[in-house]
Amino acid sequence: MLFTATGRSTAATAGRSGFWPRAIAPAEATRIFAGDSNNIAWVHSLALDRKGRPRIAYTVLKDAAGVPKGKAGRDLRYRFARWDGKRWHDHEVAYAGTTLYVGEDDYAAASCVTPMTRRRFSFPPT
Question: Can you give the residue ranges of every domain in the chain?
Answer without folding.
Answer: 1-30, 32-122
